[in-house]
Amino acid sequence: MGQTENTHLVDKVVDALRKAATEIEGLQVQAHLGKAEAADKYEELKKKFDSFVFDTKSKFNNGKDKLEKVQEDIQNLFEELRVQLALGKADGIDTFHEQKKKITNKLRDIENKIKNNPTLGKAYAIVLVEIEKFKVLLEWLEQKFNEGKDFAVENFEAGKKELNAFIDKVKDKFKEEPETTRWENFQDEMTQAFSHVKKAFTK
To answer: What pTM value is reported for the model?
Structure first.
């Protein structure tokens, strides 16, 4: 990958991270969502994420980034994820937990496939951002289903600070790191940054 192309990819990743942070920050204004509203929001988020997965699947299936056998494997995982996202509406906490478990298991399979293949790590960097964001949104929704509990504001603010610090350092860090380790480290560090935000929803 040439320097210009790599810089463009880093810019796209940073942009995706900033958009994810903005969307997560928007949860603060929806702090008092009730269970019925949470069920509707969950459906909305599933459809939005499904649309992203579909677009990603199409792009890598038809575009220049097709990666033969390993690509075939991840395409199958994407399709299995879409099946889980298409499950019926979760009207109660039990249904939500069941769906969340299936979705997060499939997300973990996809993350592991990406993490264990250096080429995929680079190609799917933005997918990893969207997965982490979706997992944060699921944690937030779980609190809404669970007696409408609100998140811990102090934890949330600390998490946002950590995530924004990570976003700020991505660009400079990626210029310095060798190509061979850059994308491997990205997933671990990004997961850690998002995990600080998720802690706000697990009180």
So the answer is: 0.85
